[in-house]
Specification:
With 215 residues, the chain is α+β, with helices and mostly antiparallel strands. It has two helices and 16 strands. Strands 1, 2, 3, 4, 5, 6 and 7 form a seven-stranded mixed beta sheet that branches. Strands 12, 13, 14 and 16 form a four-stranded antiparallel beta sheet that branches. Strands 8-9-10 form a three-stranded antiparallel beta sheet, with no helix packed on it.
Length: 215
Amino acid sequence: MTLTNDFYPCSSLPEGPLLEPLLIAVAEMKLLCFEGTQRFLFESMQLPVDKCVHQHLLGLYNQRPCYVVDIGVLSRIPNDAQWREVRSLLGHVDDFHFNLAGRATQIIQWDRDHRFCGCCGSPTSLTDGDRSRFCHNCNQLFYPRISPCAIVVITRGEHCLLAHLMATRDALAKIISNVFIPTGYHVQAEKNANLLLQSLFKPGKRNLLVLAAFN
C-alpha cells in the first residue's frame, strides 16, 4: 500500500479525464484485505463487482477515484483475499489509511440504514450533488451521522476553563466544547483549535466562562 496522504474527499467526480479507480470492499461491516496483509485498496480488475452493487465515491486517492462497494455477501471474494474487522488494522497501518477504512465502513453503514425512510417507511434514493438519501414521499433527507471528534479542555496551571450556558437553569459549569466533523474527514489538531476558538468567541454568544481548580 502506498504510504501517502494525498486524498481529497468528495461525493462527485471533478470534470476532466480520470485515472483507473480504486475499490474498497465492505460486507457486514468487515473490510476485504489481501490475505495475510493489511492492504485493502483493490484495482478494479482485481475485484470485479456487479453493476447492481451499491457503491459510493469516497474521494480522490492520488488523483484516482476511490470507491467503497457494498458486496453484501461474505463469500463473494477473490481467492487471495480475506475479511477483517476494521479495528484489527489499528496499529498496523498509518493514521491516514485507518481513517480511510473507517470512512468506507461508515458510509456503507449509513447507506444500509437509510435505504428506507425512518418517518414513513418508503424507499429512499441517493441525491445528486451531495451525500444524502431522499424520501420522495415525505421529503425527508438523510445524511451521514456527524459525531464529536474531540473533547477540548483549556488549562492554565492547575486550573481549567469551564463554561455555563446562560440560557439554561443548570448551575453546573462544563468543559468548553466538542468539535464536530463529517464522517471520515481528517482534521488536524491545529484546525480543531481554530474551530474551537471560532465557536467560543462568536459575536453575541453569551456564555459565562469560569476558571476552576482541579480537584
